Each structure stands twice: as C-alpha cells, then as structure tokens.
Automatic annotation (TrEMBL):
Gene source species: Tricholaema leucomelas
Entry keywords, A to Z: Endosome, Metal-binding, Phosphoprotein, Repeat, WD repeat, Zinc, Zinc-finger
GO CC annotations on file: early endosome
Name of the protein described by the UniProt record: WD repeat and FYVE domain-containing protein 1
Gene3D superfamilies, per database record: YVTN repeat-like/Quinoprotein amine dehydrogenase, Zinc/RING finger domain, C3HC4 (zinc finger)
The WD repeat ranges on this chain: 20-51, 195-228, 238-279
Pfam families with a match to the protein in the record: FYVE, WD40
Location of the FYVE-type domain: 281-352
SUPFAM superfamilies in UniProt: WD40 repeat-like
Keyword Transmembrane: no
SMART domains: FYVE (SM00064), WD40 (SM00320)
C-alpha cells in the first residue's frame, strides 16, 4: 500500500474522533482493533471490554467481561484474535475473541507473577507469552502447555517491556531507571547489557526492529533514543514534556516519534534529521570559564581569599561553570532541548536564531494519559488514563502519514 504524505503546518493538531466512557476506575490499557472500528479496553474496575462503533457513531460495548482481579496490562494478537490480560494478582488470562467481536471465550490462566503484571507481549512464532511484573521479574511461558519456561529477576520493579521476535532479545525497564537487554532461550536467559541514562523510573519503551532503535520514556520527563544497531552506545536526549512520559511510539515510515505524558501532553518529534548528542557533564573544582573556585575547593578559596561558587553545567558544551558565566538560557532543539536550558555565555553567542527552531510539535490531550497505543497504518491513536476516559484520535494531521486501509473517520 502506498503512503500518502501530507504537509504539516504548525496549526495542525490531532483530531479527537470519539470519547469512550463507562469504566468505573482507571483504564489500564486500550488497543485499537486493526482494520475494525473498535477498541479493546482493560481497567482497574476488573473489566475487559470490546467496544464497537455503531451506525450512530457511538462506541458501545459488545463484550463486557468481569475478571477476578483489577486488570493492569493487556496484549492483543489480531491474526489469531487472542487477548492476554495481566492482573493485579500476578496472573495472566488468555481469551479468544470471535470473528464478529461479540463473544470472548476463556482459554487458560498463566501463573506468571507473584505481584501486579506491568507489561505483556505475545510471540506467535515461539508460542511464548512474555511479561514483567512488580515482583521484580520477567517471565516467559509456553502458551501451548501453559507451563513456565523461565524467569529472570531484577533489583527493582520491572515496569515495561519490549521484545524482538526475530532475535529473542527482551528490553526491560525498571523503577531504578535502568534498562536491561536480555537474550531469552527456551529455559534460560543471558544479560547482554544494561542501559543507564535516566534519572527517574522507566515508564515506557518502544523498539523499532528495522532501524534497531530503542526509545525510553521516564518519570524524569525525558525521552532517550538508544542506537542499539550500528553505532552502539549513541544516545539522544529529548526534553519537551512537563510531566512523566507515559508512552512512546516510533513511526518508522515518517521517522517521527509520538510521546504522551501524564499531564495530557502529546508531542510529535521529528527524528528525520541529524541530531546532536548531548555532552557528558564535565567535573571540575573551579569554573572552566573564569577559573573561580567552587565552594568545595577549600585550598583555592584559601589561596585566592575568595568565596566558593555554586557549580552549574552548560547543556550545550557540558562544561562546569559558575552562575556568572552562565547567565543565559536558550532552547536548542537539535540536541533535544525544546525548553530553555542553562548554557554558558560563549555557547549562547554561538546559537543562531534558526538553531532555536522547534523540531517537535506539542499538543494538548486534555486528560490524564497513563497509556497510549497507535494503529500506525491508519494514523490513529487511542489514549486512556486515571480519568476513566478513552479518547480516539486522528493523528494524520500531525504525523503526516496515512495508509489507505479503508478506515472511516466519520
């Protein structure tokens, strides 16, 4: 299918197509049904529901199923119409949905975790259901037998998960701010590496197997792009949200990243440019511009008979500087700084007006977003959160790509 590329003027914004209301508690997950005008939702109110769009334009639940425990995570495999629902009690339940999406049959229960399930993915090729939980582990189970194949434990709650089906690599983010890359085997696994860069817990991950890029969102309000492929170790920092980043989705076709935060912010980042990597912060006992001592440098303070100064860092060059040598603030989008950040005076002079042109668009979802999912082929996005509302968005005005799959947005 051919892609249709649209121009993206600054005034373009996501179009709210529908609101789905009816849950009595936090909506933990919502997924768009591919090639259908329908949504599957899982909630803390212990229900999983399938909503279909009627001729009136409203969404009505065609399936309403009550679980034994609050629903905390969900995965759906459309070709086999299998739904996997993770619960607060650590169990994962599998269901099979009928072709008309009006009936859902229970298949089996997997004793995956001892505590709340945080993320699930299903691999049809290996018939594995892989999950993470608040019992600090990743588990993988056989869907044919329902038996546990393996577990691996971390030092913190495992909060999110991405899986490469071809290489059997799993990426696990945790509450300590660390991402662990594992190679899963039939009954064992090996740790490949750990990625450290966030200053807060990892809240969301997205793996692009084509470009071999990993995107992570965290409670420190930032996103990091990790180049796992050819340039290992290369990272790009993106700062544009005012609250913790709850969800990320990379659109490989248009080289755009969509991210959502807890305050309802929706950002679309242009990744189709050569961005600069933020520098490592340098350490020094004195200002690297004026050489005045910092307040812990007792010897230089004594020798020069001066008071020590507070240490800052220039976000552009990474040098340790005092307040007098870094009086300016500037955005620098090429390095991911969409906000104004501290820069030293010399770096401020080197930044041209065109360097401050934003490389992202920011939009207001107008509700608390705790989970987001996209149907990239149709340019559709669904958001949900603690306000119990599910919103369906047409993102084509801002992502600039829509595949002609016959979806009706009326």
């Amino acid at each position: 299918m051919a892609a249709e590329i649209h121009s993206r003027p600054q005034s373009s914004r996501p179009i709210l197509l529908s609101k789905v209301e009816g849950h009595q508690d936090v909506v933990s997950a919502a997924l768009l049904i591919p090639k259908e005008d329908g949504v599957i939702t899982a909630s803390e109110d212990r229900t999983i529901r399938v909503w279909l769009k009627r001729d009136s334009g409203q969404y009505w639940p065609s399936i309403y199923h009550t679980m034994s425990s609050p629903c905390s995570a969900m995965a759906y495999h459309h070709d086999s119409r299998r739904i996997f629902v993770g619960q607060d009690n650590g169990a994962i339940m599998e269901f099979h949905v009928s072709e008309d999406f009006n009936k859902m049959n229970f298949v089996k229960t997997y004793p995956a975790h001892q505590n709340r399930v945080s993320a699930i993915t299903f691999c049809l090729a290996s018939e594995w259901v892989i999950s993470t939980g608040h019992d600090k582990c990743i588990s993988w189970m056989c869907t044919r037998s329902g038996s546990m194949l393996g577990r691996h434990y971390f030092t913190s709650w495992a909060s999110c998960l991405q899986y490469d089906h071809e290489t059997r690599h799993a990426f696990v983010g945790d509450y300590s701010g660390q991402i662990t890359l594992l190679k899963l085997e039939q009954n064992t696994c090996s740790v490949i590496t750990t990625l450290k860069g966030h200053e807060g817990s990892i809240t969301s991950l997205w793996w692009d197997p084509v470009q071999r890029l990993l995107f992570s969102g965290a409670s420190d309000h930032s996103i990091i792009m990790w180049d796992i492929g050819g340039r290992k170790g290369r990272t790009l920092l993106l700062q544009g949200h005012h609250d913790k980043v709850q969800a990320v989705c990379y659109i490989q076709l248009t080289r755009q990243l969509v991210s959502c935060s807890a305050d309802g912010g929706i950002a679309v980042w242009n990744m189709d440019i050569s961005r600069e990597e933020a520098p490592q912060w340098l350490e020094s006992d004195s200002c690297q511009k004026c050489e005045q001592p910092f307040f812990w440098n007792i010897k230089q303070m004594w020798d020069t008979k001066t008071l020590g100064l507070r240490q800052h860092h220039c976000r552009k060059c990474g040098q340790a500087v005092c307040g007098k040598c870094s009086t300016k603030r500037s955005s620098y989008p090429i390095m991911g700084f969409e906000f104004q950040v501290r820069v030293c005076d010399s770096c401020f002079e080197s930044i041209k007006d065109e360097d401050r042109t934003s490389l992202a668009t920011f939009h207001e979802g107008k509700h608390n977003i705790s989970h987001m999912s996209m149907d990239i082929s149709r340019g559709l996005m669904v958001t949900c959160g603690s306000d119990r509302i599910v919103k369906i968005w047409d993102m084509t005005p801002v992502v600039g790509c829509s595949l002609a799959t016959g979806f009706s947005s009326r």
